[in-house]
Amino acid sequence: MARKFLGITPRRWLEYLAAILLGNAIYFFSLAPHLPEELRHQVFQIDWGMIVDFAVCVAVYGLIRLGSRL
User: Fold this and answer.
1) What is the CA radius of gyration of the chain?
2) Hey, CA dihedral for 31, 32, 38, 44, is it positive or negative?
3) pLDDT by residue (tens digit) across 37-46?
4) Rounded distance, CA 24 to CA 33, Å?
5) What does the pLDDT read at residue 2?
6) Going by C-beta distance under 8 Å and a sequence separation of 6 or more, which residues neighbour residue 38?
C-alpha cells in the first residue's frame, strides 16, 4: 500500500505536477504568442489567460489519466 500525503498517493501527486508543468509549457511557449492580447495571462492578475492556461493543464491531466488506463 502506497503512503498517502493529504489523502493522495505519490503517483497522483506526480501526475498533478506533470500536468501543471506540461500544461504551462504548452500555454506559454506554444499558445500565448499566437493568442489575442485578451487571452494572454498577465502576471499577478486573474484574467482570461489564466482560464485558458487552466484549461490546457486540465486537458493535459486528462490525457495523462487516459494514458495510464490504457
Assistant:
1) 14
2) positive
3) 988 988 888 9
4) 13
5) 66
6) 47, 48, 49
pLDDT tens per residue, range 19-31: 999 999 999 999 9
Torsional sign, CA 13, 16, 19, 21: negative
Mean pLDDT, the chain, whole residue set: 90
Three-state SS letters, the chain: CCCCECCECHHHHHHHHHHHHHHHHHHHHHHHHHCCHHHCCCCCCCCHHHHHHHHHHHHHHHHHHHHHHC
Give CA–CA dist 29/32, Å, rounded.
7
E strand or H helix that includes residue 41:
none
Beta bridge partners of 8: 5
